[in-house]
Design brief:
There is one protein chain. The chain is mainly α and 608 residues long. It is 74% helix and 2% strand. The chain has a two-stranded antiparallel ribbon with strand order 1-2. Helix 3 crosses helix 17, helix 9 packs antiparallel against helix 16 and helix 9 packs across helix 20. The chain is globular and about 80 Å long.
Length: 608
């Protein structure tokens, strides 16, 4: 197909779906399957590591400390790898090939994890880290370039694109989590890989729809610099580059060494030394952090007063974002294990029926809506991209089959559906002896995506109204909501005695946690990067985005460290006390953010 001039706005908007280019929905479904695979695997990982080596679905029997350490390092490296993937795309291979390489690496990674042996699990996690790094930053870059001549439509485009993100996360957790817990870990891990493969093939065979976008790296002349930006230039000197490399090396060694040293019980430890009375691990990370902060604030002092103060505001927001994710990312670890070990997930009678009906609706209705969007895309693209559309349709047929099978299995298991022995055999459903519903522990994570889809329009209206709060007030409200979410578990877990390994807390408390945490996310996550782009000069965007993602990466590792300590705190003072600490810190940071409104407003220089 001739791609000449296909990246002009007229050609992009000739073939439209819901008022947007058909290419946007190609990205929508590609991103949806990538998020399906990422969140589907993530929902199972900690439970797989900590599951008993005995029983119907044996895991590795790890203590929580080991599982959370590895999980924290994995999620931190995922965010750090986006810098590597962005560099390769910008300088060497272009956005499009970066997406294809990333999707291929992730497909192989999920396939490795389905084998369940230590070698393949670790290899799979490594492939997923690099794959996500190549994939994640470059999808949004393609969206941005598609709309460079239609900025008025960009907000709507990103809204649709992020609906794909949440749809993928929703179905990934729902289905991979269900199959992993109920059928087998390898089935859950493998399903994630299958749909990543569908996303890869769909994107590869439809890529010409993007014209010339992303085929080659951006040239220097293509990078827009604000002509009014006459501020001081502060190029990196040789010693500053050396400090950056040193910080990066020390940080990576610490992140990778932490789980290795714990899992091996100290037999493999690159940081097995003491300096000034500190263990090598603590000294290394504190040195890296100290050098980084010194370099950051040293460079900030070299800019003009206005630019410097705006960058101080961005740094403050990065600190708040770090604080948010350190708590929010307890969901796949601490909160999922709380659901498994401390929550009464057994339902019978009317409670069982109500849950099954609700679960059916939240599974079928969104899937039906997305299938309708798929049909609209077919109408516009099937003649030119028939093979890609067939691949995409096969993926949806499989999703429908798995969803219906899951619902039939649950209604039968709860005693609301009678099936003959021959039907059970043909459907691969085991005969049950007792009628009941057991909610999968991973199911509660589905609520985040569900609440985002439900509440996002309301928060969007709030931000567009005259009651739209300032940046730091939004962050403050978000942190307070985050703390209040944890407060529900403080109350709900109050009767769990110290050292208890199991309990039967009502599911109500976890549902409220996810509701409040989703509202907190809507106050913080979408607006953070927006303020970076508003406050930072165009020539510095890449650097400050790097600082931003570094903050999130560190937060993910800190979230793992917090999760590691949950058991020791629970053994001594009770699990409720662990959540109380998090509640107090989150609310205090939120209040501080609101109190600093006059200071931050002055630093932002009327940017809203």
């Amino acid at each position: 197909m001739d791609t000449k001039n296909l990246d002009t706005p007229n050609n992009f908007f000739e073939s439209k779906v819901l008022g947007h280019p058909a290419g946007l929905f190609v990205l929508f479904f590609t991103e949806m399957w990538e998020r399906f695979s990422y969140y589907g695997m993530r929902a199972l990982l900690v439970m797989f590591f900590t599951a008993s080596v005995l029983g119907d679905h044996p895991g590795w029997g790890w203590p929580r400390e080991h599982a959370m350490s590895l999980f924290g390092s994995y999620t931190a490296l995922v965010y750090l790898s986006t810098m590597l993937g962005g560099y390769f795309a910008d300088k060497l291979i272009g956005f499009r090939w970066a997406v294809i390489v990333g999707a291929l690496l992730m497909t192989l990674g999920h396939g490795c994890m389905a084998v369940e042996t230590p070698f393949f699990i670790y290899l799979g996690l490594g492939l997923l880290v690099f794959g996500t790094g190549f994939f994640k930053p470059n999808m949004t870059s393609i969206v941005s370039l598609m709309y460079k001549d239609h900025p008025e439509k960009k907000d709507g485009a990103y809204t649709i694109f992020y609906m794909g993100v949440n749809a993928g996360a929703f179905f990934g957790i729902l289905l991979c989590g269900y199959l992993g817990e109920k059928v087998g870990w390898s089935i859950g891990f493998g399903l994630a890989g299958v749909f990543m493969l569908f996303g890869l093939l769909q994107f590869y065979f439809t890529q010409n729809i993007f014209g010339n976008i992303g085929l080659k790296p951006l040239k220097t002349r293509d990078i827009v610099i604000d002509k009014d930006d006459v501020d001081n230039r502060v190029p990196f000197t040789l010693w500053q580059v050396a400090v950056v490399l040193l910080c990066s090396g020390l940080g990576l060694i610490w992140v990778i060494n932490d789980p290795i040293s714990k899992i091996s019980h100290g037999k493999s430890n690159l940081l097995n030394f003491n300096i000034f009375g500190m263990e090598g691990t603590n000294f290394t990370i504190l040195l890296a952090l100290g050098l980084f902060l010194f370099l950051l604030f040293y460079r900030l002092t070299k800019y003009s007063k206005v630019t410097k103060e705006k960058l101080y505001a961005v740094t403050f927001f990065a600190f708040l974002t770090f604080s948010f994710f350190a708590v929010f990312e307890q969901a796949p670890g601490t909160l999922t294990l709380f659901a498994r070990d401390y929550t009464d997930r057994i339902l019978v009678g009317n409670s069982s029926l109500i849950f099954l009906i609700a679960n059916s609706l939240i599974a079928v209705v969104p899937l039906g809506i997305i299938t309708w969007v798929l049909l609209l895309l077919f109408k516009q693209t099937f003649k030119k991209y028939g093979l890609a559309n067939i691949i995409l349709s096969i993926s949806f047929v499989i999703i429908w089959i798995i969803t219906i099978w899951m619902l039939v299995r649950d209604f039968y298991g709860a005693g609301f559906l009678n099936l003959s022995d021959s039907t059970l055999a043909s459907l691969k459903i085991e005969k049950v002896k007792e009628s009941l519903t057991q909610i999968p522990a991973s199911w509660f994570s589905v609520l985040n995506s569900l609440f985002i889809i439900t509440l996002a329009p309301l928060f969007s209206k709030w931000w567009e109204s005259r009651f739209n709060p300032s940046a730091n007030v939004k962050f403050g409200i978000g942190m307070i909501l985050l703390g209040l979410g944890m407060a529900f578990l403080v109350f709900g877990a109050r009767d769990i005695i110290p050292g208890a390994k199991t309990a039967s807390v009502s599911i109500f408390w976890l549902i409220m946690v996810y509701l409040f945490h989703t509202m907190a996310e809507l106050c913080i996550s979408p607006v953070g990067l927006s303020y970076v782009s508003k406050l930072v000069p165009a020539r510095m965007i890449a650097f400050m985005f790097g600082v931003w993602y570094l903050a999130i990466a560190i937060a993910n590792k800190v979230a793992g460290i917090l999760g590691e300590n949950a058991d020791s705190i629970a053994a001594e003072k009770g699990i409720s006390y662990f959540f109380l600490i998090i509640t107090g810190v989150a609310v205090a940071i939120g209040v501080l953010s609101i109190l600093l409104t006059p200071v931050i407003k002055k630093l932002m220089h009327e940017v809203r």
